[in-house]
Each structure stands twice: as C-alpha cells, then as structure tokens.
Amino acid sequence: MTNVLSAVVLSSIFCSVFTARPEIVDDILPEVKKQGQTAYLNCSVINLQSPAQVQWIKLTTSSGDPKHISSNETVLIDEVVEGQRKYDLVKYGSNDSDIYQLIVRSLTETDAGNYTCQIYLPNQNSTEWPRDIVVVAPNITWRRGDGFPLPNGGFQQRGGTYDINQIQATDRGQFICIADNNVKPPASFTVQLGVRFAPYCTPVQDTVGQAQNLRFHAKLGVLGSRAEVIWYKENKATPEKEQIQDNDKYKLEQQDDQRLKADEKWYTLEIKNVQGNDYGDYYCTGKNELGENQAQFQLFETMECQGQNCPSVAGKAPSTYQVSMVTFMIGLIISFSINKCLQR
Ligand SMILES: *[C@@H]1O[C@H](CO)[C@@H](O)[C@H](O)[C@H]1NC(C)=O
Ligand SMILES: *[C@@H]1O[C@H](CO)[C@@H](O)[C@H](O)[C@H]1NC(C)=O
Ligand SMILES: *[C@@H]1O[C@H](CO)[C@@H](O)[C@H](O)[C@H]1NC(C)=O
Ligand SMILES: *[C@@H]1O[C@H](CO)[C@@H](O)[C@H](O)[C@H]1NC(C)=O
Ligand SMILES: *[C@@H]1O[C@H](CO)[C@@H](O)[C@H](O)[C@H]1NC(C)=O
Ligand SMILES: *[C@@H]1O[C@H](CO)[C@@H](O)[C@H](O)[C@H]1NC(C)=O
User: Fold this and answer.
1) 3-class SS of residue 110
2) What is the Cα–Cα distance from 332 to 313, expressed in whole angstroms?
3) Which residues form the Ig-like domain (predicted)?
4) If you placed Cys at 31, which of 3, 40, 155, 223 could pair as Cys (CB 3.0 to 4.6 Å)?
5) pLDDT tens digit string along 221-237?
C-alpha cells in the first residue's frame, strides 16, 4: 500500500518536473539610455527546454505583419546603423532563469512600438504560448502654454504629433510638448502657433449713454488683434461715415496689456467734452490683408453723468478693460478723466 502510494507520489513529481511549463517571469521594463539612445529589454524565462524557443517580435502596426527580431540567441535581422548592429541579443544566465536581453540601438521614432517576448512551443496552440509585451515609446504629452484646454479638447494629449482640425484664431499661442522616457529630466519643447486671421470685433456693450457736459468724456474701447484700426462717426445729415482723427475733440490710443495675447492691443476712442452733436453712431474698423470687420457703437444722451468716475462716486477706479480676454471682444467703455470731473 505504502509502496503504491509512494510510487504515485513519485510519478507525479516526476511528471510535474518533466512538464514544467516555460514561463516568462518579471515584467519587462524598458531601459532606455540617453547616450546613443539604446534600449535594453530583458525577458526573464524559466523552465526553458528543447524544443521551446524564446522569440522577440515587434508589432509594427496593428494590421501589419509582426517582425521577428530574434530566436533564442540568434538575431534574425541584419541591420547596421551608424556602424553598429541595430539589434543584438545577449543571454544572461542566473540559476534556473535566463535573461534574453534584446538591445535596440540608435532609436528613432520608427522604433517606437510594442515589443513582444514569447516562448514558441511547437506542439501547442499558439494562443497558449507565454508572452509579455513591452511598449517602447517616449511618453510625449502636449499641453497649452496658457493652461487653457487644447483646441481639440482636453488639457493634455499623448503622442508625438498634435493635429489641430479646423484651426481658429483662438488656437494661437504656445504649445508645450514634454517627452519623458524615464531619463531625467524630461525634455520639453515649446511651439509658438501663429494664426493669421481677419480682425473681428464683438461689442460687449454697443450702446452707451452720457450726459451733455463740456467736462464729460466718453471712451469707446476695442480689444483687437494688431490691425489698422480706423474710427468713424456717422454724419447724421448725409449720413456718411467720417473718419475720426486724433485732435482736440478726439483722443485715439492704442495700448499693450500683459493680459492680452502678443498680437492683441487695446484701441480706444475718447470723445472729449460731450456735446449735443456728439450723440449718434460710431464705428470701429479693423483691417488687415485677410479682411476687415467693424463694430458699431451708439452714444446717447442721458440726464445724469454716467460711469464710475462721476462726481458723486469720484475716486473709484474706472471700470475699463473688464472685457473677456479669451475672445476678442469690443467693449464700449465710458470713462471720465477724474481731474475734469472734480473740477466742477
Ligand atoms: C537586464 O538584465 C541585466 C543582466 O542581468 C541587468 O544588468 C539589467 O539591470 C537588467 N535591466 C533591467 C531593466 O532589468
Ligand atoms: C532554442 O533553445 C531551445 C532550448 O534551449 C532549443 O531546444 C531550441 O532548439 C532552440 N531553438 C533554436 C532555434 O535554436
Ligand atoms: C501596443 O500596446 C498597447 C497597450 O499595451 C495597445 O493599446 C496598442 O494598440 C498596441 N499597439 C499595437 C500596434 O499593437
Ligand atoms: C541562486 O539560487 C541560490 C539558491 O536558491 C541563491 O542563494 C542565489 O542567491 C541565487 N543567485 C541568483 C543570482 O539569483
Ligand atoms: C487554439 O485555441 C483557440 C482558443 O482556445 C481556439 O479557438 C483555436 O481553435 C485553437 N487552435 C488550434 C489549432 O487548436
Ligand atoms: C506619461 O506622462 C503622463 C504625464 O506626465 C503621466 O501621467 C503618465 O503616467 C506617463 N505614462 C507613462 C507610461 O510613463
């Protein structure tokens, strides 16, 4: 009885030793050395016995054929890059596990992809061959310099290229790409995207009131891309648009502001000493080689002084420039010279 039992136990031990399946142990962590950009991929296998074979395979595209790089210690691709073999295989043995190290030299973008280490078992269904996949690709992410969402949505996008569909004026600005392949520090590169577009104008407040008073001023403001900006007033009698010049009556200004994009400016028209014939329609036209756009304003008469700097509330800061910086809008801003108001 005991003999039978031990025979059974023995034979099962014998069997299990004989049929011990080859296995891939440990995850494959790509080691990419910056110097010469060489990748080392370790595939650790145990229980490898004839006729099993350790193979390194690269999946080029999801549809394309797999590229067989190596079989056991033999490299199957005879490629030489910069005087060195593109691929090499070095076998390290330690106790019962063997490391089949694939070396990929002179890495370029085309080397990015999925590398599979598999154990070919001639008599078994290929779906049961032990496999491990490692992805060799620098981790490249894109984001915007100003922290706003990317044109196609989201704040970050992976991949070496970033395509922008149907580019718009609001897409312009800095894009930063960060490549991280675990070699510290990650490399980053900034791309300045310029977009050429016809200036456009959207009034935030297209009508504004002011009392008739020689000491009051009205100011019309435009936030726009750098362009040739011309102001007009409609002549009520003709009615023709007459170009406004910088003179005793009108003050034309343009200003930079650090809150604006590099190609944006503030354009303002100040109407000094508001009188009866100042009421009416005003136009601001922005023009460049790609087109032109205009915004219309209306200045109308009120009983009381309008704006934050009127005598009763004098001292408050003018409420200029409260216009969205993201879109290019045109605002109609009333402001008064504090000095003039206080002189009353
Ligand atoms: C790969 O194996 C070699 C030899 O054992 C070892 O020196 C190296 O550190 C291993 N690399 C990784 C990423 O495990
Ligand atoms: C790979 O190695 C195994 C065992 O080490 C051996 O049985 C097999 O024949 C080898 N294959 C090739 C192609 O050398
Ligand atoms: C590579 O592997 C990743 C995940 O591991 C997968 O999403 C991707 O489709 C694979 N690419 C190819 C070409 O097989
Ligand atoms: C090999 O195996 C022995 C006994 O299991 C162990 O003491 C030793 O550290 C192992 N060596 C390596 C390199 O893993
Ligand atoms: C291999 O296994 C898969 C799933 O287990 C099965 O669909 C397929 O028919 C098998 N192929 C062969 C040749 O046995
Ligand atoms: C890639 O980089 C992003 C952002 O830095 C990070 O969240 C992600 O975990 C990284 N992925 C890998 C595989 O390193």
Assistant:
1) helix
2) 20
3) 22-134, 186-298
4) 40
5) 666 666 788 899 998 88
Point out the ligand 1 atom lying closest to the alpha carbon of residue 30: 13
Q: Say if residues 86 and 79 touch (Cβ distance below 8 Å).
A: yes
CA distance 232 to 287: 13
What does the alpha-carbon distance between residue 77 and residue 89 come to, in Å, rounded to a whole number?
11
What are the CA-CA distances from residue 263 to residues 86, 255, 260 (Å)? 48, 12, 8
> How far is Cα 97 from Cα 99, in angstroms, rounded to an integer?
7
Q: Which ligand is nearest to the CA of 30?
A: 1
Residue minimizing CA distance to atom 8 of ligand 5: 125
Interatomic CA distance for residues 160 and 181, integer angstroms: 13
Cα 182 to ligand 3 centroid, rounded to whole Å: 20
d(C-alpha 139, C-alpha 227), whole Å: 40
Q: In which order are the strands placed within the sheet that holds 264-271?
A: 250-255, 264-271, 218-225, 330-331
Indicate whether this model's pTM tops 0.85: no
Distance CA 72, CA 30 (A): 19
Region of 305 (left: φ > 0; alpha: ψ -120 to 50; beta: rest) is beta
β-pair partners for 66: 59
Token readout for 90 is 């070095």
Ligand 1 nearest-atom number relative to CA 31: 13
Burial of 315 from C-beta contacts in 10 A (0-12 / 13-18 / 19+): exposed
